[in-house]
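Thread: quick sanity check before group meeting

JM: Hey all, I'm pulling together slides for Thursday and realized we never actually wrote out the predicted structure for the chain we discussed last week. Dropping the sequence here so it's in one place. If anyone has concerns about the input, flag it before I start.
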Amino acid sequence: MHSLFDLAEQSEPVSPDTPGQTVFDRFNAEPDAMVLAVVDENDIPVGLVERNAFALKLGSQYGRSLYMARPISLVMNDQPLVVEGAASPAELIRDTLSSRAADLLKGFIVVHEGRYVGVGSALGLLQASNADNHRHAAEMTELARELETAKVEAQAKEESYRLLFRENPVAMCVWDSETLGLLAVNDAAVQQYGYAADQVIGMSVLNVLEPEQHDAFLRLKDAQIDPARGEQSTWRHRRADGEVIEVEPYTRRTTYEGRPARLAAMVDVTARKRSAELLAHARDAAETANRAKSEFLANMSHEIRTPLNGVLGVTGVLARTTLDPRQSEMVSIIENSTIALNHLLSDILDIARVESGRLTITPEPFGLADLAREAAALFVSAAHEKQVELRIEIDPAAERQVVGDAVRTKQILINLLSNAVKFTARGAVALRVEVENAAERTYSLSVHDTGVGFEPSRKNALFGRFVQADGSITRRYGGSGLGLAISRDLAELMGGGLDAESVPGEGAVFTLVLPLPDAEHAAPRAQAPELAHIAASAAAEEGAARILLADDHATNRRVVELIMDQAGVELTCVENGLEAFEAFKVERYDLVLMDLQMPVMDGLSAIAAIRGHETQDGLSRTPILVLSANAMPEHLRACAEAGADGHIAKPITAGDLLAGVANMLDGAPDMGVAA
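JM (edit): ok, ran it. Output follows.
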């Protein structure tokens, strides 16, 4: 195989407007196709659709409804690896490993003078490279056999044999089977090993072999085994300048000038092996970095959620006390801000799932106008400090209950309002909520500002990860540049879209359009139980409910105490799993609240110990509700396997905790509680 033209699969490309359903059908009809090229009307490549990435998109929640009928340009890789077909596979591997190894693994597009020719995959590239080397070596061995026959049949063919030997592009040599002295080498061997031809003749083949491999080579020689067929098929040879190269030898017995000899084709596989090592190293480095990132984010999440738990829990209790209207408003802002911060923290942990299309959307009834006002209220103080007017303009037709993901919708509005206030030095910021299409029940939520704006040519880049309008903006205003990228992903997952328009220096408009059906026929939002409900459950059992709490953090214990004080229960607090187990063995409790990460004995071990004690002593099962910042699916599975009945993710709210406790006391365990 001489070029990528020989490797390219000439599959029919698709256009950017091709529906996802058509691409899905193509992949089903063509099981061997790993990638499909996306080209414009001039056959110029504009993107690449990789089978596995596309399948992940479709496999996500609402994936089929979001992408099957929409243009493939929404999910294609718009920066594919595009290579000229005249290049060789070796050149492609060499040129991309150091800078675009990840792109190479996703596949590539082959072009001729910029126009589409076909597609290729990394697997096909490596297979073709290996096949080429083995085919070439096999051809050389066959050639040697033919040359030997020609020598025996007629002396006249001797010159032809030598000519083919000397000018063969693969390094070849002949050595004496007994003395191992080199009898002949071709020009390619001289070039490969860096010796002059007259220096090589008579030299032992052991001179180019690394010393630690001498014994293995001699054992093969004594056993009359072809070195290419021994346990070690790759040998380390040293060039005249000291450089060590990896060689695959292909040898056969022959005679040379009347003496037993070995004819060998020495294929240099150094570049191939280094390419494979680089690929493996890049893969391992990526996996290590991903694991490190996940562990770091998980640890930071746990550490951040602990103080958030204190803020959110105490504000929830405070909100249930007697407050004047101004105090209620301030407590509400604190509580809403903490909830928003908690959701943003969760989104950081979900970045990987956003990119793979696995982030969950949870539709439920909510007041659209009320949600907009709540989001805007978070920025009243910041706008006032900058003397920037903050307006909320709501179409009366939008004052209604709708069904959608209120948390994700509010998160997007918070991102847009935060940017608008941050980048506006004077003038105004306006949040407008309007009906986009009454028949289709779509709504427009737009944020208008008179800030710095951005160049229209930068709009697409603005929605990329870690991107802002320009470097000076980043330095002046700060920020990670992650909010808009996540916001657009969330908008698309909810079946809508997020777009922007701007005149530099005059401001910008960011518009979120979402389909939000009316909530009249939707199930009403679940209501938290009244405080009296827990007391009533306890009264039915003839006395205050007795609850055991295990948490090593004093703030967390105090938050639970403040919340449960309102419910009239008897609460016992301990600081680790062992203390919880010892207390459980001495006293009977109606419910156990268990943290997971604790010293001495962790929560999972304590739960298992309690269940074992119940089984051993024939006791009835006591409900156990886990309160933990560890709320990933694997954590929930571990809790269920240990014997827990429910799980509430920290930071907890008073409503979530009271609802969870009421459910447990009513005998309705649910491992999905607030998880």
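AS: nice. DSSP finds 25 helices and 22 strands in the chain. Residues 315 and 334 are 7 Å apart (CA to CA).
JM: adding both to the slides.
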